[in-house]
Amino acid sequence: MKLPWLLPRPRWCPGSLGLFLISLALTVTVACTPPAPPQIPAPDTAGMEGRVRRRIEEARTKVLEAPDSAQAWGTLGMIYDVHELDAAALASYRQARSRDPQDPRWPYFEGRLRAIQGQDLAAAIEALETALKLDPDYAPGHLRLADALAKKGDLDAAETAYHRASELDPTLAKAHLGQGQVLLRQGREAEAIPHLERARELSPEDAAVLFALGQAYQRSGRGEAAREAQDAARNLEIVDGFPDPRLAELSALGASSSLLFERATGYLEAGKPQRALADLKIVASLRPRDPYTQREIAVAYQQLDQGASAIPHLRKALELKPEVVQWRLELAETLLRSQDAEGAVRELLRARQDGLESLHLKALLGSARARSGDLAGADREFAAAPLEALPAQALFDWGNALAQMGRLPEAEQRFRRALESDPDLAPAHLSLGLSLEAQHRPKEAIPHYRRALELARIPLAAQRLQALGVR
What is the CATH number of domain 50-234? Predict the structure, then answer.
């Protein structure tokens, strides 16, 4: 007997079974096929240096090899960013953020770039706030957030962010400047002045600081102080940058000759000539006829106390751009330090022929003539400059020239003036002692010989003390 509640067994036909198997196979195939990787930004790099194109391709390859790597995407974004391929950089930072939401670098770089563009300040603020939630003690992040808020017109929030930046890093001049500017925009001049004065202490060469300070003084009724600040600002330039370790990380990925040059000059300003030299040599290979690169290479060698290595680069810079007379003075000074006084004289006379006449030139030419044996010529050069304006080294060289000419009282006077300017100039103590002894005043010479020995262990000073019977 059939049970009424039992359904009849389904009837499978060959055609139905075939369709089922095909459908199942398609489902399995779709499930097993990995999702297509996101599209990698590919901006036009045709006009870029080959070195830059290669670096971009290497970074793109790493993303293709590891499409789920936040670091690979972030590095690609940084490379695009540092070479001003903004849209590609922003797209890459977004991919990095989605793969590692805990890394503050990617929202920080995105927010910084959007703030620079100024087209979507809301997105810039969101990204910077996200970065600061992940790393709340990063002072440059608060400064960039404050700048973006100020641009957007949210002055109260900007003031808070500037204050937090200066709390975290009291030496951050731009934070004090920003807070002062925001207070000025709110009509709070009295509160702005201390911040702007602190910014001036930290960054006295920044025209933006002095202009803002002058404005604050003017509104506070301090007209004379306002004029002084405004006059000083006219001779200065606006300082754009501020210390930002993350930006240094980004800058290190730059491969173009202009970025390498900029990074190298930063190294020189920071007293890191070896690093600067490495970048400058690459720039020189890419731009062999750039006089500025040759000059900066010379500066790097000078910072390394390798004057002889600096000379050919200064000569090359002048060969490429002979109208920069100041470089000729630098070459002459380097030749003088390298004991080539006659070469220094030639370069200084050439600078004079090219129309340069300055106290610096007179002092250098006087020293070069003195050391090359042209004593009368040295005396003429030095005498044409104000005595009180000559540096200690020039006064010392003048004194030596006068002593060799037998004009001992005048020589003594120059040595004493040199020591007033630089009390630790050991050779001047020795020469003053010799001039005093030659004027039959040995007792006065003794303390100068002793001081020369203390400062530089000069053998002649020891010999003179022994000859005078002094231990």
Answer: 1.25.40.10
